[in-house]
Design goal:
Radius of gyration of chain B: 22 Å
Order of helices and strands of chain A: EEEHEEEEHEHHHEHEHEEHH
Structural class of chain B: mainly alpha
CATH class of the domain at 42-63 and 103-268 in chain A: Alpha Beta
Oligomer: heterodimer
Radius of gyration of chain A: 19 Å
Shape of chain A: globular
Number of domains of chain B: 1
Helix content of chain A: 25-40%
Number of helices of chain A: 9
Number of helices of chain B: 9
Largest sheet of chain B: none
CATH superfamily of chain B: MetI-like
CATH class of chain B: Mainly Alpha
Strand content of chain A: 25-35%
Strand order of the largest sheet of chain A: 8-9-10-3-11-12
Mean pLDDT of chain B: 87
Low-confidence stretches of chain A: 1-12
Distance between the termini of chain A: 57 Å
Strand content of chain B: under 5%
Largest sheet of chain A: 6 strands, mixed
Structural class of chain A: alpha/beta
Distance between the termini of chain B: 37 Å
Chain lengths: 269, 245
């Protein structure tokens, strides 16, 4: 208990940012994740595509502890998220351990989920101040820089009610970046936006991708964007990854029948 | 003219009684709010034992007649616990506060459930602790839903304070009854209808003050959701369609 945890047992260079092993998740009879194995390398940008309702979003949600897997293990930055090591055995983790490992991840939601009773800046400064003990001055300074980055510094004092959907989503992205998570999860972040507002949000994502420091997992229907920023595209259906490859390969020349028919349906529209 | 007023000695008694009523109200309100928030949050705990305990409290607090609870707190419990001279003011307030907490906890629980789930999810993603989530994210957004029924409940408790006269606390109702019984306490005998009219008006005015305070609190809370600057300020202050007709 009192002895410090040894660092990850594996050679750290090869430790993936996200490692999922045998993850199962069902909602009632509906199995959404079936023995899912997935490694995402440090700094890698992975786009997950697949039919709606197939459980793509659940992959992100179990990594963010918004859903608890029925079985299997998930590691973030080499640390078990839901388990603690006691010698060689894994035991269910306590809340404190989960919080410590969870600090590696950040998430942006389809419906923004900004806090409506706080200004844009307050939305961003809350987590650094409350979870990392950053001073208000420092948090606000960093918050304004992040707002600058998403092009909304002038809107710092606006509440979410005064912002357009695209602006809200850019604030939400800035908010999730404020604590400096190493792994960013993006859950259909442009799906709820009017088409003319999608571009601004995508360009913010592109900026994050270009910096190359953040591991990104994105669930999206924006195939053009996927082709442009992804290192790897995963086709997900029936609880499993059925095809995986470089965007040019998977999107240009899919091998699996279901990938073909899915992409066919997407590009027809 | 004189027919509608009491004399100054009588008003002094009513004033003293009003002060006791306000003390009981303040104490039971403070306890009631703490219990409301505590048990309202506990009703939604992830832990079954905590949820169950909160449910038991709520059902007991709502299901017991407040006058019986009052007698228990004032007379029975002190004997069981071996208190010598319990403060009647304290025991009376605790009984009313316990009662208020039962109803208040349900108000708080309902209001918390009205906050969209995405708000809690976003605060989990930001790695806030469960306490921080409740305090900074959920409760502030539940406030607009909590305040109107909590104002009602507080007025109910104000009216409920009249019960403490039955355990011998000299609150407003107690003083009024005493004036009625000792009709010759001063030179002019009290006119019974006027006496009770005065009591009625005092309770009514106190209730109106509570309603006003809650309305101010509501306005303040709602202003937080609007904005600090910019165009919507104008839209929001624009006159609404008249209800004058």
């Amino acid at each position: 208990m009192s002895a410090p945890e040894p660092q990850s047992t594996n050679d750290s260079a090869a430790t993936p940012a996200v490692r999922m092993r045998g993850v199962n998740k069902a909602f009632g009879d509906n199995v959404v994740l079936r023995e899912l194995d997935l490694d995402v390398a440090e700094g890698e940008r992975v786009v997950i595509i697949g039919p709606s309702g197939s459980g793509k979003t659940t992959i992100l949600r179990v990594c963010m502890t918004l859903e608890r897997p029925d079985s299997g293990t998930i590691e973030l930055e080499g640390q078990h998220l839901y388990h603690e090591k006691h010698g060689d055995k894994l035991k269910p983790a306590r809340e404190k351990h989960i919080r410590q490992v969870r600090s590696n991840a950040g998430m942006v939601f389809q419906h923004f989920n900004l806090f409506p009773h706080m200004s844009a800046l307050e939305n961003i400064t809350l987590a650094p101040m409350k979870t990392q003990g950053v001073s208000r001055d420092e948090a606000e300074e960093h918050g304004l820089e992040l707002l600058d980055k998403v092009g909304l510094r002038a809107h710092a004092n606006h509440t979410p009610g005064q912002l357009s959907g695209g602006q809200k989503q850019r604030v939400a992205i800035a908010r999730s970046l404020a604590t400096g998570p190493k792994v960013m999860l993006f859950d259909e972040v442009t799906s709820a936006l009017d088409p003319e507002l999608v571009g601004d949000v995508l360009s913010v994502l592109r900026d994050i991708a270009e910096e190359g420091e953040t591991t990104m997992m994105l669930v999206t229907h924006e195939m053009g964007f996927a082709r442009e920023v992804a290192d790897r595209v995963l086709m997900f259906d029936s609880g499993q990854i059925i095809e995986s490859g470089k965007p040019s390969d998977l999107l240009g020349d899919p091998q699996h029948e279901r990938t073909k028919s899915f992409l066919g349906a997407v590009f027809d529209h | 003219m004189n027919d509608f007023f009491l004399n100054s000695t009588q008003y002094e008694r009513l004033w003293d009684g009003t002060l006791v009523t306000l003390q009981v109200l303040a104490l039971s309100f403070m306890l009631g709010i703490v219990l409301s928030v505590g048990f309202g949050v506990a009703r939604l705990s992830e832990r079954v034992a905590v949820r169950a305990a909160a449910l038991v409290y709520v059902e007991v607090a709502r299901g017991i007649s407040s006058i019986v609870l009052l007698f228990w707190m004032a007379f029975a419990l002190p004997i069981l616990l071996g208190f010598d001279q319990p403060s009647r003011l304290l025991m009376g307030s605790v009984a009313l506060g316990l009662n208020m907490g039962g109803y208040g906890a349900e108000i708080v629980r309902g209001a918390i459930q009205s906050v969209p789930k995405g708000q809690t999810e976003a605060s989990i993603a930001l790695n806030l602790t469960p306490t921080q989530r409740i305090r900074h994210i959920v409760l502030p957004q539940a406030m607009p839903v909590i305040l109107p029924p909590m104002g009602n409940l507080t007025i109910e408790i104000l009216k409920g304070t009249a019960l403490v006269s039955l355990i011998g606390l000299s609150d407003l109702t107690f003083e009024v009854s005493k004036l009625r019984v000792n009709r010759t306490i001063s030179d002019d005998p009290v006119s019974i209808p006027i006496l009770f009219l005065n009591a009625l008006i005092i309770y009514f005015v106190l209730a109106q003050i509570i309603a006003l305070l809650f309305r101010l609190a509501e306005r303040r809370v709602n202003a937080g959701f609007e904005q600090r600057s910019g165009r919507t300020a104008v839209e929001l202050s624009a006159p609404t369609a008249g209800v004058t007709g």
